[in-house]
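Quick one - inputs below.
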Amino acid sequence: ELKVEQNPLFLSMQEGKNYTIYCNYSTTSDRLYWYRQDPGKSLESLFVLLSNGAVKQEGRLMASLDTKARLSTLHITAAVHDLSATYFCAVDGPYLTVEGSQGNLIFGKGTKLSVKP
Amino acid sequence: DTEVTQTPKHLVMGMTNKKSLKCEQHMGHRAMYWYKQKAKKPPELMFVYSYEKLSINESVPSRFSPECPNSSLLNLHLHALQPEDSALYLCASSPTHDGEQYFGPGTRLTVT
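Output:
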């Protein structure tokens, strides 16, 4: 069974500090996704990491993927309050059962980030 | 048009009601998805349509019935729901069955 584990699940940071969220997954996957979700809102796609060694940056967030270690990281630089949200990582799950149809995402439990002044 | 839309935004229904959720995208995506998200939990996949063909997630009760009238539209028909079905229902689409998924704003469903 494919498992996706994130840690920490809760993160309280001060503005201006740096921190890293970790995402481990249990079976081979060449792609990993990071999403952001604000309370009561939908999921916003942040990064799609497509290959081993991939690194992507957007503003204060940087994501990386190590497929050999089955590990992705989301690094936050100089946090600001606007980054407060829940962050999910997800990987491609196993094929579904009906012939010809594939593709589902397996999500981690999410990391609730709170950035305080 | 680069977004996935969902209606209604909020829905309150009784356990004997029949209602439908609607999802639409005009990005030419050929795969569409329904997810259920309970509070403080990650989304859980319910159904996938790929090239208008249904993939069934075997753990979904029959009181949830999906329908894909065309490649742009996805419905979720609800009947005889239980209070534990109250959740945020998210629709997503992707260019192909294994592409990046784009999520709609969701429908907040409350079953009374």
